[in-house]
Amino acid sequence: MLLLILTCLLICAALMALVWAWQRRRGVASGLTQEKALYTGFVADLERRQARGEIDDIQAQEERAQAARALLKASETQAAVAPVKPLYGYVALGVTAILSLAVYLMIGHPDQPDQPYKQRLQTWTRLAQTNPDVLPPLAMAAVLRQGQAGHANDVTYWLFLGRIDMLAGNNYAGAQDYEKARALSPGTFVAWSELGEALTFVGGGTSGPEAVQAFEKALQRDPNDARAHYYLGQQALAEGRYEAARGHYEAALKTMAPDDVSRPQVLEALNSIGQAEAAAKAMNARISGMVSGLEAQLKADPENADGWARLLRSYDVLGDTAAHDRARAAMQAHYANRPEVIADILTKAQTRVGSEGEAK
Amino acid sequence: MTHINEIGTYCLVLAFCLSLTQAGVVIAGKGRGIARYAEGISLAGAVSIFIAFAVLIFAFIRSDFSVVNVAEHSHTDKPLLYKISGAWGSHEGSMLLWCTILLVYGAMITLRGQGLPEGLRLKALGVQGLLGAAFVGFTLFSSNPLARLAEAPLQGQSLNPALQDPALAFHPPMLYLGYVGMSVVFSFAVAALIEGRLDRAWARWVRPWALLAWSFLTIGITLGAFWAYYELGWGGWWAWDPVENASFMPWLAATALLHSAIVMEKRDSLKAWTVFLGLLAFTFSMMGAFLVRSGLLTSVHSFAVDPQRGILLAAILLLTAGGGFALFALRAPSLAPGGLFAAVSRETTLVLNNLLISAALCSVFLGTLYPILMQALFDKTMSVGAPYYLAVFGPIMIVALLLVPVSTLMSWKRADLKGVVQRLAAAFAVAVLAAAVGSLFYKGPTFLSEAEYLIGLIVGFWLIFGTARTLMQALNFRLNAAVKALRRLSGVPLATWGMIFAHIGLGVFVLGAVVEGHQRLSVMQGMSLGDSVKLGQYELRFQSLYQTPGANYDAQGGVFEVKDGLGRIICQPKPQRRFYPASNQVQSKVALCFTPLDDLYVVMAEPQTGVDGVMSWQVRFFYNPWVRLIFFGPLLMALGGVLSLCDRRLRLGIVRKGRKLAVKT
């Protein structure tokens, strides 16, 4: 802290010296002398412009008169001006220096040193070697990442780094780590399974096609992988495939030890299937009612392109292929002479609700 | 253990105290003979705040997350350029940039203003000191960019991906060099009002500063428009967004100022009006800062900050601008009206130009503030968009632009209108002919649209050919003595070249804006691999997908192929969707096909899976004809400003050199 204060004082002194040096360099020539020199220059420039024909004689005369008036005014006012008194200047600079230090001590943090990332990483590396338990996962991940070049082909390294990244909440980095582990050792079910889990986290809890594929690959390599069963069950439940979901949850429970911490979670998911099934049935009944109504409406008044698109989309959502084909045929029959309307309806029917016209 | 950040904080405090002292010694007055210390203090203040700014940049480069600003706007994975530009990517950092430029301009008055009368220079430094104290004080006490965190986070939150772009790295510094450059004009205006010294010399001293700020502002606005064009992926370059307008208003005021200062310098007229514009230009700059930071606006440009800071900025705006205009109200009646001129003269056309630009400025001002006032007074949410500006701003500017070539050929005091009309007749005829030919290629949706197009083209070509006629006049060009006239090219003063470049640049811009605005084509369609879409004579085909890692992002891109009507491959645009893990954000990256004038512009939105399980991407495909001119024109204008600045008469500090010359002879 003392060193910091000394440095601040030194900077302050250097800047005050700059002020002093500038003042000395400027000298003590009176304002009037300067004004004279200034307007002499101004008139010289004026004459040069006049000679080059850039300004006419009248303008030159006017400007000359103006310069003379300004000089006259300067000579009147300069008489009242006192010469520079260095003492007042020194007092002003001294007060500025003291004020700056006082304000700094009020709002600054002289006890807080810099914490550049490189330096912190060195500290974490030392801690990782001596007392790794105290390191938060994000710091541990940063420490481990330093060694990636040396472990480019080390599956264990990438798996471990992936887990640390996941613990640190860096799901995307975790997925990339597992992806490397998987590429190095495609036969290891853990790499696939953990990759799937990381991708699910990246997707905000939804297993996308890549995650599902990773879980399926994991199960191909180890059919008892509880993690893959659990997430596939979750995905099946979300898609309304209740039997598949039940199968996956039961398979997961079968492979789990009785004291496995994840067991209650899987059990809870299994128990929720019935509830979800009942809710889905009720929903489908409601949708079917609405869709039937829409179909009847279109039968009565088929000139409704948006209605046809909605109807086709609804049958798609309900998975009723036969009804979809029937409605499509009716629509095509109605618009037989207007292929552009048919194309428009089919495009609209294939667009998910809410995805039209993405913002600029 | 080092304390570089703390040294930066101390330097910021010191800069604040030095600004206070700078203003203080001038106010304390000549009576005590210490006013001259303001000069050295302005240099010390600039050095001090420069150190503080360098420390902030260093903290960003070192990823020192114990600095709040760094923790909130940086990340270790960010490329170096964006680590550095992150220093002004936040409200706090950009305020420090503003203050740094403000104090450096103050130092420039000391260094380059030795040719100015001492009283005027010291008073201007005093005003600059007050402005410095206000802005550095605001930055230090309410928006400290070097504020510290007791517990530094393990990683930073990174910078908004949309800001990680080279154009935006340089856009704020350029814009601020323009905004804050107006503070020098403001300070000189206030100083002149206090001194009661407003003559031709004052106008000549002020013009280079206004020109410098105007040139930077022109470049800054152009960079911003270019960034909005290719980074935001909406195909446009100007949306009349309130924050865009906030940068446009000082530009308009500065443009009017540059022209009225010419009249003041040449004819000793328009003194009060020129000073008023000097005050106005910086007031609009400060208003821009207030609008962006007060939380009043929701815009892609605005910094999300708390309203308390907005109140503080409003207070600074009211005190400084209010003080300046109050002084103006007191002193303006005593300002002699100056030289007389006839109704037909260059002065008259420049006055008209000023009136029209001011009317245009008022229309932008109203359009910008009206929604804010409606919201504040009646809790009504509304927006004022392009139709308003095209209907109100457009016609005013058309008249102003039509006057430009006429004005440049007019004589001072009394002009021969008939002679000017005769000299410009050929240029006008060529402009109309070129516009008529250009209009043949445009079939607008309405007659009004076609008329707009034709008028726009006439204005653009008129500016170019009319200005070319001015150059011919300067060269005393005669067809039978063309070689002789061309030899005189080197004798044309740089200021004249500057004017010619600026006016031609304006014409080029108008042509680009008119053609792009009327002939732009666009289509948006969900496209899967192998799909194609037609736009005018072009066909865009989605060929393949690719993945590529970036410095701090992973990109998924599409490879497209554009063919023209003859089936020739024009280009292969590769737009991207970039995922930035640090901020968990996705940014679309536009692909442009470069042709000399036009752009083919492709942007991909996020993928979606259709009910048939096939992935598709919403793809926007634009054909923007002559869009290059929109960005090239303003660059020509800025070049014109720089050329004028290089003119001996306008060079900063030239009078000092003149003095040396006089002493030698």
Automatic annotation (TrEMBL), chain A:
Keywords recorded for this protein, A-Z: Coiled coil, Cytochrome c-type biogenesis, Membrane, Repeat, TPR repeat, Transmembrane, Transmembrane helix
Domain Cytochrome c-type biogenesis protein H TPR: 141-260
Domain of life: Bacteria
Transmembrane domains' residue ranges: 87-107
A GO biological-process term: cytochrome complex assembly
Main location (coarse class): other
GTP-binding as UniProt keyword: no
Compartments where located: Cell envelope
Keyword hit for Ribosomal protein: no
GO cellular component: cell envelope; plasma membrane
Chain coiled-coil ranges: 48-78
InterPro entries assigned: C-type_cytochrome_biogenesis, Cyt_c_biogenesis_CcmI, TPR-like_helical_dom_sf, TPR_CcmH_CycH, TPR_rpt
Xref: NCBIfam families: cytochro_ccmI
Protein name: Cytochrome c-type biogenesis protein CcmH
Originating species: Asticcacaulis taihuensis
Automatic annotation (TrEMBL), chain B:
Subcellular location: Cell inner membrane
Coiled coil spans: none
Entry annotated with the keyword Electron transport: no
GO cellular component: plasma membrane
Example of a GO MF term: heme transmembrane transporter activity
Spans traversing the lipid bilayer: 7-29, 41-61, 95-112, 124-141, 174-194, 206-228, 248-265, 272-291, 311-330, 351-373, 388-412, 424-442, 454-472, 492-515, 626-646
Taxonomy, superkingdom: Bacteria
Domain Cytochrome c assembly protein: 88-295
Biological processes annotated in GO: cytochrome complex assembly
Keyword terms of this UniProt record: Cell inner membrane, Cell membrane, Cytochrome c-type biogenesis, Membrane, Transmembrane, Transmembrane helix
Keyword Transferase: no
Membrane topology field: Multi-pass membrane protein
Record domain Cytochrome c-type biogenesis protein CcmF C-terminal: where: 315-648
Family: Belongs to the CcmF/CycK/Ccl1/NrfE/CcsA family.
Job of this protein: Required for the biogenesis of c-type cytochromes. Possible subunit of a heme lyase.
Protein name (record): Cytochrome c-type biogenesis protein CcmF
